[in-house]
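Throughout our pipeline, every protein is held as a single compact record rather than as scattered files. Such a record has a labelled line for the sequence and another for the backbone structure tokens. This encoding replaces a full spatial description with a residue-level series of whole-number codes. For reference, a complete record is included directly beneath this paragraph.
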Amino acid sequence: MDLNTIRILGLDPGLRRTGWGVIDVTGSRLAFVACGTILPPEQAPMGERLAHLHRELLGVIEHFSPQEAAVEETFVNMNPSSTLKLGQARGVVLLAPAQMGLPVAEYAALLVKKSVVGAGRAEKAQVRMMIGILLPKATPETEDASDALAVAVTHAHHRGAAARARAAL
């Protein structure tokens, strides 16, 4: 990897499916590295599902050695129980890269869609299509992996502002 290249891990958190995507950024050039979806066992107790998610995320981080991570912010829905469970998964998704020493940025879903498609209310199919254009070698098999790549692309575009915001804290 070139010294001027930054490797970014994008994450789309979920308790049933967490998407991950890794890209390399050299200047304004984006290059696909890998993507996938972590599927915790749905019938397992909550603690076991979260532990599975954590182990798998650490494995992705160790295998691809990203330098920065970005996570999509949680969309709060009408069901408090679902929102709480998603929040627990999101906590694990934020923890794993931070535990490995990576700076972790967070982006609202509207900003991710606007950054990738140009419209904050874009459909998932539009996001997936634009990922295919921006990262022609990308092979996301799920919407979650495609969304994670979109988070990584968003971070590539906004990482300077994210770093300044972290420094201001």
About this structure: The two ends are 31 Å apart (CA to CA). The chain is about 50% helix and 20% strand. The helical segments are 46-64, 80-99, 109-116, 124-134, 143-168.
